[in-house]
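New here. Your pick:
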Amino acid sequence: MKIVTIVGARPQFIKAAAVSRAIQTFNRKPPSSGRSSSERKIREILVHTGQHYDYLMDRIFFEELKLPNPDYHLGAGSGSHARQTGLMLERIEAVLEKEKPEIVVVYGDTNSTLAGALAAAKLNIPVAHVEAGLRSYNRAMPEEINRLLTDHLSDLLFCPTAQAVQNLLKEGIKDGRRNVVKRAGDVMYDSILYYSKIAERKSTILKDLELSAPNSCTERFQTVPYPTPNYYLATLHRAENTDDPKKLKFILNSLKELGKDTPVILPLHPRTKKMIMTYHLLSKARGIKLIDPVSYLDMLTLEKNAKAILTDSGGVQKESYWFRVPCFTLRKETEWVETIQSGWNVLVDTETEQIAEEVKKKGGGRRPSKETKLFGDGKASEKIVQILSEHFFKKD
């Protein structure tokens, strides 16, 4: 079976790495049902759209995650949503016409996701969507449009949570003759279990930034005791925050206020850096420790050891939950409602200057760790590969 995997942004590299490892494991298993090993193998063709294209947002992730070099790099680059998606669509279509895969696998909710799903659907190639069923119910978000359309184009929908399955059911998408809808769990959870151990050995970011880590030797992923956490971690990249000068100013002012008592580390996304300069807000960032984007292993280390995290990223919200670090989400809504319901995540309105007060009021102390299975058991990738194999090999 030949599959084409479409990726373009760093969260997709992380998710695809987990599934690619599961494919390799699957291919090493002895064949069944009388087939030879060659007949039962899955061949993965990796297509990188080029949505993220600088070293710190792209190449270093492939190196750390040990992803194979892409079979195709489409070089889409940046641009308006329409231009970027249209360019990807044209170039992905050419790859699919050449490769003729049995299925196209897309991840998440980026322009790469939608372009891959649309190109495949137009060519009558089945689409598998990993991280299906998420909804913020805010169509002003480009990501919401991407995930909504991708789900309705997909044939196999792999949901990370029970809520995601219910969201699809409300839209008439259910497991049955037309679609395969499965709660597989979250492939990012697979990755965090795998790579956090590597990060403990390899990351030097705390030493490099002269930070200390928390006393959390009894908590998951942590094996040695450290002093009390002494920094906040912030991430900021969504257009709704960065492209609105008033919101961006409020956020920077709040981070600056928090930084008076406790250091605030802000790895600068290229878009955020550009808009800070465009709106002449660099003075508002004084007191915040601005650093270049960090690698995945360094990011895991920073997240795990922070006093609290402020973010507008979906993936970081989940990673905060898995590391049991309090999270403050700089948005009015989130597609990861489970993190809110569990008490580990708080939505913070970015249209006010009360962000710092909210963080201080709700606190940054560690809460008692209580293991749950909201996002699966850490074997989502294996389940996805198994379902793919059962779905396609049974047709032989």
In short: DSSP finds 17 helices and 13 strands in the chain.
